[in-house]
Design goal:
Shape: elongated
Number of domains: 1
Largest sheet: none
Distance between the termini: 13 Å
Order of helices and strands: HHHHH
Strand content: under 5%
Radius of gyration: 15 Å
Number of strands: 0
Helix content: over 70%
Structural class: mainly alpha
Amino acid sequence: MTDLLFWLIVGHCLADYPLQGDFLARAKNHKTPVLAANGQPFPWQLALAAHALIHGGMVALITRSIAAGVTETVLHLWCDYETSDGRNSYWGDQCIHLVHKIVYVLLIAHGIITT
């Protein structure tokens, strides 16, 4: 199971850094609107959902579980919204995401999530 946790952490790093990029990192924050090419505010909801879906897809690919992927999408969306709202620090946000990965591994190890 440690190999699964390793790959989930690698997937998280890929999804939170190179696959997120500067645009999504800024646009997903509902408190600081980013302007689209047409000069209108880019919908933060779309940026946050896209970022969360990247994470959910990564978890689903690694665990081979759509249930884990959907759960990750929802949890990541909620956690990042809370962070942009100032309820989590950067490190608190990252620790929460790590705990989610540990929980997926435990649920898979106990057969609660099947792969």
